[in-house]
Amino acid sequence: MSPFKGQTGLKRILNASGYSLDGLRAAFTGEAAFRQLVLLNVILIPLSFFLNVSRVEQALLIAVCLLALIVELLNSAVEAAIDRISLELHPLSKNAKDMGSAAQFVALSMIGLVWAVILL
Q1: pLDDT above 80 (res 4)
Q2: Domain for residue 110, yes or no?
Q3: Structural domain range at position 38
Q4: Cα distance between residue 35 and residue 74, in whole Å
Q5: Which residues does the annotation mark as catalytic?
Q6: b (16+ CB within 10 A) / e for 60-92
Q7: With 80 as the cut, is the pLDDT of residue 104 above it?
Q8: CATH at residue 108
Q9: How far apart are CA 53 and CA 31, in angstroms?
Q10: Residue range 42-70: average pLDDT?
């Protein structure tokens, strides 16, 4: 067991929820890309309820939008960790940040592809 692990049971769940909300708050206030994706989700998710699609298709439309938010959170976490280690330019740091960006590009492409396949 890690000495850094804290509470168990309900207390752990409450603590974890607080940490998660702190992370969402940090992403929203500090990351423009996250705010842009939130705006995209605010538009696309309600729009999915007005489209003439099956429930499964609607679930897919919503899931790919939420997936892009997840990927952006992970990308921002990687960037923060890299910057915490060192702001010095290093090829491995560049690779890590570029791969996070590539993951987000794939997630955004998935939104476009899934929405196009379902709607066209």
Answers
A1: no
A2: yes
A3: 32-119
A4: 14
A5: 72
A6: bbbebbebbbebbbebbebbeebeeeeeeeeee
A7: yes
A8: 1.10.287.3610
A9: 33
A10: 98
